[in-house]
C-alpha cells in the first residue's frame, strides 16, 4: 500500500517544517482580517479562501523550492494506485453515507454549505470548478492539515490530534456529510503524516471533489440509486470503500508510530 520509491525527503521536509511554524493564533488573526476585508469591500464570502492561501505562501516563501519537490515526488511515499483508490473510495463512501444519512435525517446545512455561487452557464460551471476543485481543497488542506494538525500534534498525542483536526473539518460540512467528512479528514491526516507532503491531501481532496462534480452530471443517477438494485449496489460499494479506507488508516497509523 505504501510506496517504497526513493525521494528527496530533505527538500520536502524543508517546506513541511516551514509550514509547521505557522501558529493557530496567526490563523485566527487571518480569519478576522478576512471577515473584515469581506465586509469592507462587500465581496462574496468565497473570496475568503484566497487570503489563507496567500498568507501561507508568504510565510513559506523562503522554502517554496520544497513545494516544487512535493509536486515532483508526489507518489514517492504513497503510490499512484493507492492515491487513485483512496480518491475513489473516499467519494463512494461519502456518497453512500450521505444518501443513508439523508434518508434517516432531514437535510440541514452548517456554515459553509449555506454558501452558494451565483451565475449562469459556463460562468457558473467555471466558478464551481475553480472554488470546489482547486481553491477550496487548497485552502482547507492548508488550514486543517498544514496548520491545525501540525500544531495539535506538537501538543497532544497523535490519535487525539488527528481526531480533533478531523472533527473540526467535519463541522464545516453539511450535517448529512459530517460522518463521511470526518472519515475523509482522518484519511487526509494519515496521508499527510505518512508523506510529510501537503500536496498529497490537497491533490486527493481535489480529485474527490472533481469526482463529486462529474458524477453529479450523470443523467438519471438519482433514479438509478433510488431503485432497489441501485441501493444494494451502493451499500456494497460503500462497505468495500470503507474497508479499504480503514485498512489504509490502520496501516498508516502503524507506520507513523514506527517511524516516530
Q: Biggest sheet, open or closed, and with what strands and sense?
A: none
Share of helix among residues?
over 70%
Number of helices: 11
Write down the overall mean pLDDT. Answer: 84
Poorly predicted runs are: 2-6, 105-120
How many β strands by DSSP?
0
Q: Give the CA-based shape.
A: globular
Topology as H/E string? HHHHHHHHHHH
Structural class comes to: mainly alpha
First and last CA, distance: 19 Å
Radius of gyration, CA atoms, in whole angstroms: 19 Å
Percent of residues in beta strands? under 5%
Descriptive overview:
This protein has helices spanning 9-20, 24-41, 50-59, 64-72, 80-104, 121-155, 158-171, 178-195, 199-216, 221-226, 228-259. It is globular, with a radius of gyration of 19 Å. The protein contains eleven helices and no strands. The longest helix is centred in the middle third of the chain and has 35 residues, at 121-155. Helix 6 packs antiparallel against helix 7 (158-171). The chain has 260 residues and is mostly helical.
